Amino acid sequence: MENLIPILGILTGIIVPIAVFLWLYHDDKHKRETVKDIAKHIDNPEKVEELLNIFEDRKKEPIDYRRNGVITIFVGIGLYLLGVYALGSVLKGVGALVGAIGVGTLIAGYLYPNTGKELTDAVDEYEKK
After folding, report:
1. 18 or 6: which leads in pLDDT
2. By the 8 A CB rule, do 71 and 106 touch?
């Protein structure tokens, strides 16, 4: 009975990634089947392309480093506080490292504008000089 917890811990580490993989696979499989069924009844290739663009998972917007930096900073703070109150100095170091990475990401977001409006504003400001 005392070996049950470590065995369940090991099995959880194996079962969870496999379950997520299978879930994502079946979710995408149903999307592909739906697109095939709809494409069979559409004669216009432009509408098929439009349909494919709807189901496309990739974002067309650039990554917002400022938002990701703030999230990473607060994850680092949370890890640091967990180390202070519960788990010790190792987790404090990990939290400080994650927080420093978040600060770097936040700074990168301000140094490198990423949206079209920010790029246009930067070019306009440069041309005024």
Report:
1. 18
2. no
